[in-house]
Amino acid sequence: MNISHLSFPLESSLKDTRIPLLDPNDQGYSDSQSLSIISREFSKEGQICPVCNDYSSEIIIFNICKHSFCSRCIKLYLSTQITQSSVLWIKCLQYGCPEPVPIEVIYSHLTPNLKTLYEKLKTRSEIYKNEHFRWCPAPNCEGYDNGTIKKHKLTCNQCGFLFCYYCNQAWHGSKKCNNGNDYQFEKWANGNKVKYCPNCRLKIEKDGGCPEMICPNCNYAWCWICGKERNANYHDEMFCLIGLSKWEFYWYVIFGMIFAPALLPFSVLVFFVIMIEIFGERFDDADEMVKYLAKKKWLLYSIAFVFSPIIVVLMMVSFAFIIGLRISKLGHRNGYYAWWLSVFFGFLIGVVLFIAFVFILIALSIAAPLCGFFFFLLKLYFIFKRLTSNEIKVEEYPRSLV
Fold first, then answer.
1. Distance between CA atoms of residues 89 and 230, nearest Å
2. Would 35 disulfide with which of 7, 104, 166, 218, CB 3.0-4.6 Å?
3. Hey, how many other C-beta atoms are within 10 angstroms of the C-beta on 160?
4. What is the pLDDT of residue 279?
5. CA-CA distance, 39 to 42, in Å (whole number)?
6. Is the dihedral of CA 235, 186, 176, 168 positive or negative?
7. Which residues are within 8 A (CB) of 331 and not within 5 positions of it... i.e. 6 or more apart?
8. 109-123, pLDDT tens digit by residue?
9. Phi, psi angles (nearest 5°) of residue 243
10. Mean per-residue pLDDT for 191-206?
11. pLDDT at 157 over 70
């Protein structure tokens, strides 16, 4: 990644200087990826920095995205990002630009202390991607070890302290892990919209909006519900709202199918309950009316419970007759019959459609419980299989729905 470093003293000649990356072992290192300094161009006024709106004689241009900023703003921005531990992906200062700040710019604008902190935090962030990584629990030790499902006994690479892979406490042999506090925290975190980024393991609290999440630390985009990458081909945005897999549905879907005949007259109530209780996070960014309904949900539920059967019948009748009238109007427009015959035929078609709707609902009311019972047995099978499996899943992404 190249940048152009422009400075404007009173006089000098145009000159190119190539400065290699500070870390030749960096994966992205190459001779072409270096800092290009085009310095000493004649100017008395300099250029305007879009961040501080000040004239500056030292403007840095990012050659990838072509955005330019003064050195002072870049230093302040990098200092803020690093002190907030956002080091894996430091984006361009331009709002909405997805490109990162070139590594050469980062290193050339950091003080020695910030540079040390940056390298330390970046190393830690990269390490956190490994779900089998464990820090040494010994006081004042920054060592670590990597475990596996079979490797429970870990040894610190610095102090040699022995500790447990699962509870991260001193090695206790065959005794049961004392990780009750961790379990209680995870339980509280899941109930309070706190999960971790599947890429860098940073704990993140969700404060509303859609299920698409973007980690502020590593810029990784994932689905809040299932933890899969949002842009991945194997992620089905709709299906993750229905089940854990194609054969294991969530409990609310299974019981919805089993009790479908009883719930059908109360479809309006079921609709509001699902939207508020299951997908209620979306209301945080909705308009004022939706927010008001969410706050008065118990009043809304009561009204929907009373009037839902009437609304369902009226919707079915209206839908059938609207379709019937639209079909019959086609014949009237083509001159096949008079307008009053159009109304008559529309009424007849509406009656036929309404009867057809009733038979379809009866068929679905019979089929849905059978399908629900089938998926209920499958759900029990998958749960039993997980409970009896010898595999121990470590830090599995906590699903919002089960």
1. 18
2. 104
3. 11
4. 58
5. 10
6. positive
7. 337, 341, 342, 345
8. 888 888 888 888 887
9. -160, 170
10. 72
11. yes
Mean pLDDT for the chain overall? 72
Residue from 303, 292, 294 nearest 274 by CA = 294
Residue type, 249: F
**Closest to 71 measured CA to CA, from 85, 52, 88:** 52
Q: Are 86 and 64 in contact (CB under 8 A)?
A: no
Work out the pLDDT band at 374, boundaries 50, 70, 90: very high
Residue 332, classified by CB atoms within 10 Å of its CB into exposed (0-12), middle (13-18) or buried (19+), is middle
Cβ–Cβ < 8 Å for 87, 123: no
Beta-bridge partners for 195: 204
Q: Please report, to the nearest 10 degrees, the dihedral formed by the alpha carbons of residues 317, 319, 323, 329 taken in order.
A: 70
Q: Is 360 exposed, middle or buried (0-12, 13-18, 19+ CB in 10 A)?
A: exposed
Q: How far apart are CA 85 and CA 117, in angstroms?
A: 9
